[in-house]
Amino acid sequence: MEQSTVLAARLDRWAQARPLLVDGLLAGLIWLVFGLLSVVAGSTGLIVATATILPLALRRRRPTALLAWSAAVFALQLVVLPIPLPANIAQALVIYTVAAHVASLPVRLCALGTALAGSLAAGFRWSTEPEHTRNALVIAAFLAVFAGLIWLIGNVVRGRETNMRALRKAYAKLEESRRQRERFLAQRERVAAAREIHDIVAHSLTVVIVQADGAEYAAEHARPWDRRDARAVLATIARSARTALAEVRDVIDVLRDPEAADDPAGASVGVADLGQLVAAVREAGLPVEVHADPAAFEQTPAAVRFAVLRVVRESLTNVLKHAGAEATARVAVERTPEAVRVHVEDDGAGCAVGVVAAEPGHGLDGMRERLRALDGTLAAGPRPNGGFGVEAIIPIPVGGVRR
């Protein structure tokens, strides 16, 4: 059954692609069967049959013209021949063609009216005695019913084809929408990956640069180093580089495994991760005071904890970049029943917002974009007494789970 269905579908596509060839073959076949049988009416019958059947080769290309031609030939037949011909089956095919392939309702109604008028005329022409009138009405009624059914079938087929075309267009639009959605999701994933990698690399390179600059200054101006001093600096640089490499690999793993994208940091982010981040910044030479409420990392969605860690990282990175050598930083993370609040401020030189957020998706704008996905907010700017401050508020969804 499945193979026959596939074969029928292939034949239908082949026929739809070659309408002129199919109609020509159909006209030739009808002429060989019904046209030659019309020779019972003599040479006149054969001529009329040929004039009736052969134009069917253009039935779908010129259906309206074929209707007019068929009506004229049928009227001529009624004049020159007193009997029906087997070729008159072609008139039924003309009615079907107009009903199935002409979009204009007036033309289709004209075809129906012509068919009914021809049925009545044929009934009286082909009727015989006795009871000529009664026989004529019976023949006319039979022909009219037959023509009406053919016309209705054609309209049903036309409606089906119209619906199929509409469905194909709708499917094409849905397919295009699906491709656009896939492109949008891919672009969003690329932007998210770029933002993650920017945060990771910017923080790690800032630590490395601060350590390297400090080591260079100390090597040139300070007392001679012993091995422990050099080893401490190099260990900090190596640890920052390894951490950055591992986190970049995590981002790439998320891109390879879309199911992991909903929880990019995993479910294990906690106070210990915040402590490691702060320790790395302290090793880079920035004194940091931390007050972290453990409740902010307990029974809190992983996405919220991850956002907290990213806000602290980006803020401390900005302090390292812009606050100056003598600056200190304070980090406070607290949880309320409705949200987690993050405060990061410093007492250094500060910087203008435009310097930090020079490009969309970087710096402060990157943090805002991350928090916006969680319905959070970010406020940042110079402090009245000097330095720079960042405050983030991340709502906790009801039930503690965000999807």
Automatic annotation (TrEMBL):
It catalyses: ATP + protein L-histidine = ADP + protein N-phospho-L-histidine. GO terms for molecular function: kinase activity. Its EC number is 2.7.13.3. Residues 11-161 form the DUF7134 domain. Residues 189-258 form the Signal transduction histidine kinase subgroup 3 dimerisation and phosphoacceptor domain. Gene3D superfamilies: 1.20.5.1930, Histidine kinase-like ATPase, C-terminal domain. This is histidine kinase.
